[in-house]
Amino acid sequence: MSDEATGPGTRVLAIVAHPDDADFKAGGTIALWTGAGAQVSYLVLTDGSAGGEDPAAPRERLAAVRQREQRAAAAALGVRDVHFLGRLDGQLSVDEALRRDITRVIRQVRPHRAVIQSPEINWGFLPDLHPDHRAAGEAALAALYPDARNPRAFPELMLDEGLRPWTVSEIWVVAGPRPNTYIDVTGTFDRKLAALRAHVSQTAHRSRLADEVRSQLAQQAATGGLGEGRLAEAFQVI
Question: Any stretches that span the bilayer, and where are they (predicted)?
Answer without folding.
Answer: none
